Predict the structure.
Amino acid sequence: MKQQIMDRFPGIGCAWANGAGKETTEYYGFADTESRVFVDERTIFPACSVSKFITAICVMKLHEQKLINIDMPVNRYLRQWKLLSADGQESNADIRSILRHTAGILDGEDGFYGLRRGDPEISLTDVLEGRTSYNNKPVRAGKQQGLAFKYSDAGYCVLQQLVQEVMHTAFSDVSRDILFDPLGLSSTFFATPGNMACFEDRMATGYGDNGMPIPGRFPQVPDLAASGLWSTPKELLLTAKEFVKALHGESPILQTESAREMAKPVKGFPWTGLGIFTGGEDILVSQGWGENGQCMMKMNCRTREISVVMTNRNPGVDQAESGIEWLVNRVFTGQSSGV
């Protein structure tokens, strides 16, 4: 198994914590194969859809501060742009349903990929209105909320707009101020052009499913809340540890009620919480898969075992088949030292 995983990914970063809180990190391969830059503790990987877990925490922080109520329609807080239903009327979809992918918001079949660094910058409103090739379908609540689970990057674009309008600040700045800085995360950020310029020398070059480097080394991602997070395995591990601490009433950063709301399975859709997914009794999972990487984070909320694996290639298959899930599960079987 080891050799298969090593052959599949140019670079891999792993971070595990056992039930006693002891942390182990391991790094393999190259952050950039062409220049022979090795992966190490400073390498920053794409977190892809693990972004949604971070976004959900930020939204819950606003809920804690009573700046929003997640059980109210999202349109109550939107002024610059409104979420519409299929009939063109304002949708009554609430924030909670968007967090758990049950708001009836459907993604376009070919949206949310392919934008390259150096392409003309597009605004979040352009994305929401489907005015670009990056997302050529207007974001709408096409179905009544609560009837079905539909995983939606578009829904998290709406949440990004919500956070920015409520806070009157860029989403990337809000996440830094209310989460990354308080946690002491110096290598975790949402990939605005400015942030990418600051961290570019440490960001892992992305490789597509054909094994070739992504043009420009990594894509440009305007839907930050859905898939624009970059981090190191160690810093994602620290974030997960803080979340588990919150579940046990031990976090000064996130209230216990907020964490438990996120972790609680949704009635009728027991595999999903708010911005995170259930993976069995006491298990929470967040994972990402994009055109420049694949990753996975897993937490046992009872034993406090946590694992994070990040890579810099789209393997063309899911985490179970690519070997990422096998690496993640090693801490849960006591094998996290050595792949």
In short: Residues 293 and 312 are 4 Å apart (CA to CA).
